[in-house]
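[Automated response] Your request has been received and processed.

Submitted sequence:
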Amino acid sequence: MELKDIQKDLEKILSPKRFRHSRGVAETARHLAEKYGADSRKAYVAGWVHDCAKELSLADMQHIVKGAGLKADSYLLSSRALLHGPAGSILAETKYGIGDKEIQSAVYYHTTGRADMTLLEKIIFLADYIEPSRDFPGVDNLRKLSEINLDEALLAAYDSTISHLLDQKAYIYDLTFIGRNDLVLKIKEKKNEKE
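Generated structure:
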């Protein structure tokens, strides 16, 4: 499916606010990809489709994930906020014909993160967090940091998410902790290599 056709479909199935958000993520992802040496076309496409499952019911997301044979733990299967990533990665392929595994993986992990994130996964995770329509305390600082150091900005996004969830006394998904801690170690390794 051509990108213009994907965009037309997204405009039909998403709320105007979610469609605007998806456009913002796509444009932010393309900018970050150009800045940090990733494939800007892949980043742009992944940005557009990252939330293609976001407004589905939890039952529909579960049906998509189970139908594709994806293994998912009970918490992931019970959370619309998290399950839309895996469900969206499947729809990217089955509905929109996006066979690129890098794009699918970036869509899959854009809400949770994970250890050993690829450059594209980092870009989509961060673009989702800082795109122009996002408005929360600290987002401007994250946008500035994203122009200086991708990993440091990603770490700040992880920290902000975890702090928010702690304040809400909410469950923090395992992959988010694992991804954050993996990134801390990798940043430390890079600093040690420079010394």
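Summary generated for your ticket: The two ends are 48 Å apart (CA to CA). The longest helix spans residues 16-36.
If you did not submit this request, please reply to this message.
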